[in-house]
Amino acid sequence: MGRLDGKVAVITGAASGIGRASAVRFATEGAAVVVADLNPRGGEETVAECKRAGAQAVFQRVDVINEADIKAAVDRAVAEFGKLDVIFNNAGLAGAVGKIEETTADNWDRTFAILLRAVFFGMKYAVPEMRKAGGGSIISTASIAGLRGGAGPHAYSAAKAAVINLTRSVALEVGKDRIRVNCICPGGINTPLIYNNVPGGFEVADQFLKSIQPIPRAGGPADIAAMAAFLASDDAEWITGTAMVVDGGLTAGTMVFGQRPIGETPPGGFMGPSFEQKPK
Ligand SMILES: NC(=O)c1ccc[n+]([C@@H]2O[C@H](COP(=O)([O-])OP(=O)(O)OC[C@H]3O[C@@H](n4cnc5c(N)ncnc54)[C@H](O)[C@@H]3O)[C@@H](O)[C@H]2O)c1
């Protein structure tokens, strides 16, 4: 028996990376999945993987910039599988990149439409269906870039920060309807979003991502899928309004204190009063 047996989920951005891994994980755990994405070829591959895992799945072409497309994905879940229990608002891209003074209003707006407004649409159309179903779980992909500067481009970081607070705000409204609203803040996950933009591709990205956090391996889409499946499940029944950080410890702090890696102490394991210390 799977943790998501009998549940129906819509996952945006499910043709690749985190969304695909989540669709397959949800399917493995027993959910029926609407694979929603701009990319039909990748989407159909995900559907085939979900079916191989023994679940029902359909592809729905969605451009999350369009409100009607997101409504259609929710409607498709109800038409195909009878209800909606889970929506995972996950589709994304890097969006507007470059210096702040060179960023155009059009690129800024497009980034916000895909990374933030689409999450709003996902929530807007999921809530009424979840009320009918007696409850549900809304999950969105934010980022550690929404928690601090320097982890992503400007517009991306601002939009992801807004996803975190939209999550909290909507959680307050719909908790009484047994609808939980959470987001996930991934760290560096080696998906096409990252490795297609790195000269040298997957291997070079993998080496780099291994080196930036305490756990010495790159994050993979399965790490985020595991958290999404947990948040979708009844095991997370009392969890709402949270931003779950899944980052191998990247945001725990800096790994260097002064010029020494954390944990490497001077001989004796104790540093005395500063006036006794001489530069070596
Ligand atoms: N990879 C990372 O390190 C990382 C870290 C933090 C957050 N994220 C977030 O995770 C989410 C998934 O990204 P990923 O790393 O799996 O990247 P990915 O490129 O592998 O997957 C993104 C998916 O979103 C789809 N998509 C993009 N624009 C769309 C649109 N307008 N309408 C519908 N679908 C669209 C793409 O077709 C693709 O299938 C994104 O929201 C991203 O911002 C990724």
- Helix count equals 8
Oligomer: single chain
Distance between the termini: 63 Å
Shape: globular
* Derived structural class: alpha/beta
Q: What does this entry look like structurally?
A:
The chain has a single domain, classed as NAD(P)-binding Rossmann-like Domain (Rossmann fold, 3-Layer(aba) Sandwich), CATH 3.40.50.720. About 40% of the residues lie in helices and about 15% in strands. The chain contains eight helices and nine strands. Helix 5 links the parallel strand 5 (about 135-140) and strand 6 (about 180-185). The mean pLDDT is about 95. Bound molecules: nicotinamide-adenine-dinucleotide. The site of nicotinamide-adenine-dinucleotide (NAD) has 29 residues, from helix 1 and helix 6.
List the main descriptive attributes of the protein structure presented here.
9 strands; binds nicotinamide-adenine-dinucleotide; 41% helix; two-stranded antiparallel sheet; alpha/beta; 280 residues; single chain; seven-stranded parallel β-sheet
